[in-house]
Amino acid sequence: KMSKPELKSDNTTTTTTQIFTNSTNQAIARAIPLNDPLDDPNFDPVSYVNALFPTESSLSGIEGFMYKMKKRAKDLDEEIVVAIRDQSTSGTKAKKDLSDAEMAIQQLFIKLKEIKEKSEQSENMVQEICQDIKSLDYGKRHLTSTITILKRLHMLVTAIDQLKHMAKEHQYRDAANILEAAKQLSLQFHDFRRVQKISDLLDQIASIENDIRIQMFEDFRKGIHLPQDHSEGSLAEACRLVDALGIHVRSELISWYSSVIFANYRTLFKPTGDRASLDKIHLRYEWMRKCLNQYDQDHSNIFPSNWFVDEQLGIDFIDVTSKQISEILDSNKCEFILCYAKLFYYFI
Predict the structure, then answer these.
(1) Alpha-carbon distance 93 to 85, whole Å?
(2) In whole numbers, what is the pLDDT of the chain averaged over residues?
(3) How far apart are CA 50 and CA 91, in angstroms?
(4) Nearest-angstrom CA–CA distance, 339 and 282
(5) Residue 49 burial (CB < 10 Å; 0-12/13-18/19+)?
(6) How does residue 131 score in pLDDT terms, banded at 50, 70 and 90?
(7) Helix orientation angle between 309-331 and 281-294, rounded to the nearest 10 degrees
(8) Averaged over 301-323, what is the pLDDT?
(9) In 169-195, which residue ranges form alpha helices assigned H by DSSP?
(10) Which tens digit of pLDDT belongs to each residue from 82-121?
(11) Which of 24, 234, 236, 241 has the most CB atoms less than 10 A away?
(12) Which backbone phi and psi does 20 adopt, to 5 degrees?
């Protein structure tokens, strides 16, 4: 029995060349399964040949094996040539694609730059438009305010003209309404008093008010003693105008009316007169009662109820009477006790 022929491996020919690292080979093996022993990175040609030709009789097929190996080597060479050609072509194409990509990136950067510039221009334009809108809105507000002021100024001038005419015609009812409106309008122009025309208008209103006050007091002097049918209506309307003039004019008118009413009282009961004695003090109360009755009949419809003219007459009666009695007592001390008793009697 022949011994098994074996090829002895020479140290110079059996050295395995490691092209890739172990980790790389493992990664390649996972990606591409190795079905051919020749692809094994630890391929040993001696062991491979011994495995193919384990006996001498198996050497008869070596020519066929050599033919297959040569054909395979030729096919591999052709595949390598094709792969190199494809790689060259793909490399050129890759360079062209890379160049095209770089060009596209440059164009993209240019477009982005243009977009950024346009966006900045748009932002500047928007800011300018907003500034213009703010200016227009500011101008609109001022224009609206100016138009409103001009309308009120026209109304004020018209009210002054109407007030002059109505006061001249003694149309006190309508004049009261116009005066109230004019005073309300004049409040809107106090900040414009530095303007001469506005200042003249405001001074004109004050002058008209003073003229109306003088005219109404004259009307009261003439009409307060006339029959009720002749004076009641006009004087009652004048009282409405007095309210429009202000509370100081009302107080002045009430004081004037009281002085007119008590003029006769001061004359009748003056300290040196016949009725000044303390034993005739009851005549004073009778006169006051008659005065209030006459006020209710003749003048209560002239003066508004919220003026409380009758109450003011009572207050003035007490004031005038106390002063006169004080003068009488100073001149005649002896009558003090009698006066006190009679006053107590009337108060009861």
Answers:
(1) 12
(2) 79
(3) 42
(4) 10
(5) middle
(6) confident
(7) 160
(8) 88
(9) 172-187
(10) 888 877 777 777 788 888 888 889 999 999 998 988 888 8
(11) 241
(12) -115, 160
